[in-house]
Amino acid sequence: MARRTRKITPVLLKKMIFEEAAKLKETLEQGKENSQKVDADETDADDYAKSLEKDIDYLQALKIHESILKEKLGKVLKAKKVIKRRITKKV
Q1: Are 40 and 30 in contact (CB under 8 A)?
Q2: Tens digit of each residue's pLDDT (9 = 90 or more) over 35-91
Q3: What's the angle, vertex CA 36, arms to CA 17 and CA 45, rounded to 5?
Q4: Is residue 1, in this structure, part of any structural domain at all?
Q5: Cα–Cα distance between 44 and 46 in angstroms, integer?
Q6: DSSP of 30-79, one letter per residue?
Q7: Range of the structural domain that residue 24 is part of
Q8: What is the overall mean pLDDT for the chain?
Q9: Per residue in 23-47, pLDDT tens?
């Protein structure tokens, strides 16, 4: 299987270094020498699924609210344009 290669930019390299440093720091905080020996807390997928479902529902509600606000903004901008024209005609 062919792998795609990416150019490593300075920003990407810094990000990778900081991620590895954070992993090592976490390993050392737990008093382990090898990161493979670190005990990780396991959680059920159910907890994440419910949270994800709530986030998706909230995102949909925000999209609806955004569309309503866009309509109102369009009306306000249109009224502003009409008033500006009216003012320039009177002056």
Answers
A1: no
A2: 566 566 676 777 777 788 888 999 999 999 999 999 999 999 999 999 999 999 988
A3: 90
A4: no
A5: 5
A6: TT-SSGGG-------HHHHHHHHHHHHHHHHHHHHHHHHHHHHHHHHHHH
A7: 7-39
A8: 83
A9: 878 777 766 555 566 566 676 777 7
Give the CA-trace dihedral at 22, 28, 34, 38, to 10 degrees.
-80
Do 70 and 55 share a structural domain?
A: yes
CA distances from 21 to 12, 17, 33 (A): 14, 6, 14
Question: What does the buried/exposed string (b/e) look like for 35-53 if buried means 16 or more CB atoms within 10 Å of the residue's CB?
Answer: eeeeeeeeeeeeeeeeeee
Please report the beta strands in the chain, taking only residues with DSSP state E, as ranges in sequence order. none
The reported pLDDT for the residue numbered 26 is 78
pTM (predicted TM-score): 0.44
Query: How far is Cα 81 from Cα 73, in angstroms, rounded to an integer?
Result: 12
